[in-house]
Amino acid sequence: MCFNPEFASTSESRRSNMRAIRSRRNKTTEMRLRAHIVAAGISGWRMHDSSIPGQPDFYFRKKQLAVFVDGCFWHGCPQCGHIPSTNRHYWSAKLAKNRRRDILVSRALRRLGMRVLRVWECQLRENPAKCVTKLVRLLELRTGLRRRTGAAPKG
Question: In CATH, which superfamily holds the domain spanning 22-142?
């Protein structure tokens, strides 16, 4: 096998690029959802609570709800996730490992009595209102409250 300097520089630039991608506070994903949550007036959450398995992006302690904003590339979105054409074996294994970890974390949280909401990056980009509505519904389900439309209050 001979050394190819062109490949080495591409690999190094790819490595450098991947290292620069942040796993938290990514402005295009979880910070976007955070802005929508704040705009909707939803409170009672913490970000990246390290006492919770998987460190959910948002954790609603009183409602026992963990919310993850999954990047389409890193978590293998079935709609738009892809495997890079270079080093396919590595990336296939890496992304499969990430998906397995996500499943195990969700199971662990459910065993602890928590609900889990996973929002894909593309869903948040294409329809943030739908994502917030899903979140609100889960928060309402957790408290047993239901929205009433047009019904007069009892009493």
Answer: VSR Endonuclease (3.40.960.10)
Transcribe 85-136 into DSSP letters.
SSSHHHHHHHHHHHHHHHHHHHHHHHHTT-EEEEEEHHHHHH-HHHHHHHHH
- From residue 105, give the alpha-carbon distance in Å to each of 46, 52, 53, 68, 98: 18, 10, 6, 11, 10
- Residue from 56, 61, 42, 76 nearest 116 by CA: 56
Instruction: Record the pTM.
Output: 0.76
Q: Can you tell me the mean pLDDT for 37-61?
A: 96
Give the integer Cα–Cα distance in Å for 23 and 47. 13
Domain edges within the chain: 22-142
